[in-house]
Amino acid sequence: MKTVVIGVIGADVHAVGNKIIDYVLSNNGYDVVNIGVLSTQEDFINAAIETDAEAILVSSLYGHGEMDCKFMKEKCEEAGIGHVKLYVGGNIVVGKQDFAEVERRFMEMGFDRVYGPGQKIEDALEDLREDIGN
Amino acid sequence: MKPYLLVDFGSTYTKLTAVDLDDEYIIGTAKAPTTVDTNVLEGYDRAFKHLMDDHPGITEIAGVSACSSAAGGLKMAAIGLVEELTVEAAKRACLGAGAIVDAVYTHHMTKREARELKEKNIDIILLAGGTDGGNQECIVHNAKRLRDIEVNVPIIVAGNKDAYDEIEEIFEDTNLEYYFVANVMPKLKKLNVNEAKNQIRKIFIDQIIDAKGISKAAEKIGDIIMPTPEAVLKAAELLSKGYEEDEGYGELIVIDIGGATTDVHTIGEGFPKRTEVILKGLEEPFAKRTVEGDLGMRYSARALLSLVSNYEFKKYFEEDDTCNHDIEKSLNRRSQEIDFIPKTKDEEEFDKAIAKICCDVSVSRHVGHVEVVHTPLGDMYYQTGKDLTGIQYVIGTGGVLINHKDAKRILNQVNKKSNKALELRPTNPSILIDRSYILAAMGLLSQKYPKLALKLMKQYLM
User: What is the ipTM score, two decimals?
Assistant: First the structure.
């Protein structure tokens, strides 16, 4: 069974989406390690190291995701898990912005997949199957 | 009179406590210097003679249980992967089993680290790393390192179970002594130290005692069933939980200020008390022990110089203390003369200040703390460690607290402080002192007679 780490980054306490992601991925054959809300980059990375996760799914709903996600990829590389896929999704930037532009910025930051507001977890599930298998 | 005898082979003294099982009281205690270098039984026999002299009514012994921290206690190395996760879990397993954690290694051990480990005087190695189903590669790497340097002490493997077959292949056909137990962190942040603790204790009884020359005692008085700190933790747990219909004292702290270390034991969940507080980090053990190797009255006194400035040190003197203390000189003296006993008021006051610092700093390190996070939904708090604000009892033990007339004042240092507002320290708990020095003995007694041990603790801690 493939392991993925999920959680909500930064000073963000939105727990509902997190539970939905946990539910859907668990029911689709993934070993979900849910580190919950108010998580730091280090929490995600430490969890991924110990559990040998193949993907980290970062959620953010409160608009400050861009700030919270900066240098996460670099930290993963520093910690020896640069190969782990990095996904991010939710309301990840301040205000309404062009999603293609937002996606480009997060990709540049080292994220492999970026999801905008309103996108369904099923999309990410499909990508996960493609990226790390089931 | 046929008392039950409880023996503690300490690093300095061999202490005996005689309990009358029928009339349910402590007949008496006696002590004599521990004699590990020659024959440990000499010290025991001397202490026993003192006991008989004081209580001629003792004709026969109903039974004996013993614990030991002699010859340096139980020294362990903890190896894991991530410092805050499996390494921390491994350390807690060692501490909970009454060991001193003398070496800690994270991630992949280098050859240099492995050699250093072999040179250290370690009794048992605890090898962890990875959750079950998680990282295998690191624990396998470290197992190979241990095999390559041919460590000659027992290894307890308590990591990712998926790696056990491979580790077994690495270890078999070698001279290594190894044991597999359940993972200390089977799931992320889930602590599971009981199997590891039991294995540590088993090795301690079977071998360590022997290696330290204390087995002669075992031949005469029966098994030495645990390291002394574990006995104290067991006593604290019993006193907290109670036994059958006899209620316990609820959540409590035991502080043991010794010559070299300060031990803090807490019994309690320590969960957040408010809804806006979110718990972070590894799960906390219900009975938690921490050991501060740089806080002590004698051996470690010098270390205080680097912990607190002169200015801070002075704050620990009583307001009405008019003595002119030379802090550096007094600390140096104590670390050199480890059997120093204060005689003048000056020296007593200075010892009191050291004890206060040991108490204050060890509690700071033991208790949980909160951190404010400003979120768009208002302020939230992270809590790391245990919330001990609701602790009802603080119990003091160890030489300085037992003998000091102001022991309660020293222990008042555990309380919440305005300059340490983010620490989850107790608020005005009741303070009890282990005046007759019976906590370890009661931990031992509780293995066979928990009801009586509880009753005696309630009676003798005051």
Answer: 0.84
Report the 3 state secondary structure along B203-239: HHHHHHHHHCCCHHHHHHHCCEEEEHHHHHHHHHHHH
**Closest chain A C-alpha to B193 CA, distance in angstroms:** 17
**B282 shares its domain with B366:** yes
Query: Is B184 found in the same domain as B37?
Result: no
H/E segment holding residue B393: strand B393-397
The residue range of the domain holding B85 is 75-206
**Residue B36 distance to chain A (closest CA, Å):** 42
The verdict on residue A92 lying in a domain is: yes
Poorest-pLDDT segment among B81-85, B205-209, B330-334: B205-209
**Domain at A55, CATH number:** 3.40.50.280
Q: Which of B180, B206, B232 is the last residue of a domain?
A: B206
Same domain, B123 and B42: no
Cβ separation of A46 and B376 shorter than 8 Å?
no
The answer on B126 and B142 residing in a single domain is: yes
Query: What number of residues does chain B have?
Result: 462
The whole-angstrom distance between B417's CA and the closest CA on chain A is 27
Q: Is B211 a residue whose pLDDT tops 70?
A: no
Confidence of residue B221 (pLDDT cuts 50, 70, 90): confident
Tell me the pLDDT of chain B averaged across its residues.
Answer: 91
Q: Tell me the residue range of the domain where A56 lies.
A: 37-128
- How does pLDDT run across A65-120, given as a tens digit for each residue? 999 999 999 999 989 999 999 999 999 999 889 999 999 999 999 999 999 998 99
Residue B84 contacts A where some CB pair is shorter than 8 Å: yes
Contact criterion met (CB < 8 Å) for B85 and A50:
yes
User: What whole-number distance in Å separates Cα of residue B239 and Cα of residue B450?
Assistant: 10
Residues in chain A within 8 Å Cβ distance of B108? none
Cα separation, B113 vs B97, whole angstroms:
24
Give the A window 23-52 contacts with B, CB below 8 Å: 31, 33, 35-38, 43, 46-47, 49-52
Same domain, yes or no, for B171 and B256?
A: no
User: Between the CA of residue B179 and those of A7, A62, B97, B99, B200, what are the distances in Å?
Assistant: 36, 49, 16, 18, 10
Mutate which: A50, A76, A83, A84, vs B, most B CBs within 10 A:
A50
Task: Please identify every residue of A annotated as catalytic.
Answer: 12, 14
A13 CB within 8 Å of a chain B CB: yes
Global pTM exceeds 0.95? no
For B299, the token pair is 């051996």
Here the CATH number for the domain that contains residue B33 is 3.30.420.300
